[in-house]
Amino acid sequence: GQQVMQIPQYQHVQEGEDFTTYCNSSTTLSNIQWYKQRPGGHPVFLIQLVKSGEVKKQKRLTFQFGEAKKNSSLHITATQTTDVGTYFCARRDMTSGTYKYIFGTGTRLKVLA
Amino acid sequence: DTAVSQTPKYLVTQMGNDKSIKCEQNLGHDTMYWYKQDSKKFLKIMFSYNNKELIINETVPNRFSPKSPDKAHLNLHINSLELGDSAVYFCASSQDQGLSGYTFGSGTRLTVV
């Protein structure tokens, strides 16, 4: 299956600034998941989006699924140093009747205090 | 209690050696996975087992052999290790074919010298 492209690859922001990462697919997605991986850590599931145009919030994090279900975004308002890490989107892929999640290329966020 | 635990956390070994990584989950999930994360942070699925049955086998050299003695355990054995095998290997588990997200282990950092 095709890898999902994420932009930007890297982002450095000053603490307090906003941050957005975008996940783009050339094909329609059935759903999209987002994960966060702290430096030296493991990916942690954040959320899943299923419906066209869906918007979900978790405190300072806002997740959106595009109307055409071909892209998604994660926006962090007023970043904090605890937001440092790599953010991955993951799309569901079905091959031979088996589902798996293919992870995006990731966006590495660095927050400068 | 750790939900998905992997051992060892670090593994340094010489080229040509054979090594194993073990994974156990206590979440009662029916599907387990092995993912490989390279130095660029790309996360790529290798294998998946559902109730001890191999359901996903990506294009992985046959030096890699997974084994699932029961649905709570998934091990990975690697023969004749090569320099290019150096990476972080993550075990993960899920229920409902991943619709509730994957739970990852803390990873095994394999360094082949």
> What percent of residues of chain A are in strands?
over 45%
Helical region count of chain B? 0
The major pleated sheet of chain A works out as: 6 strands, mixed
Proportion of helical residues of chain B: under 10%
Per the principal axes of the C-alpha atoms, what is the gross shape of chain B?
Answer: globular
What are the main properties of this structure?
heterodimer; A: 113 residues; mainly beta; six-stranded mixed β-sheet; five-stranded antiparallel β-sheet; 0% helix; B: 113 residues; four-stranded antiparallel β-sheet; 11 strands
Could you characterize the architecture of this molecule?
Chain A is built from no helices and 11 strands. With 113 residues, chain A is mainly beta. Chain B has strands at 4-7, 10-13, 19-25, 31-37, 43-50, 53-57, 64-70, 73-78, 87-94, 103-104, 108-112. In chain B, strands 2, 4, 5, 6, 9, 10 and 11 form a 7-stranded mixed β-sheet that branches. A 4-stranded antiparallel β-sheet of chain B has the order 1-3-8-7, with no helix packed on it. Chain B is globular. The mean pLDDT of chain B is 94. Chain B contains no helices and 11 strands. Chain B is mainly β. The A-B interface holds A 31, 33, 35, 37, 41-45, 48, 86, 88, 92, 95, 98-103, 105-106, 108 and B 33, 35, 41-45, 48, 50, 55-56, 90, 97-107.
Describe the structure concisely for a colleague:
Chain A has 113 residues and is mainly beta. Chain A has strands spanning 5-7, 10-14, 19-24, 32-37, 43-49, 55-58, 61-65, 71-76, 85-95, 98-103, 107-112.
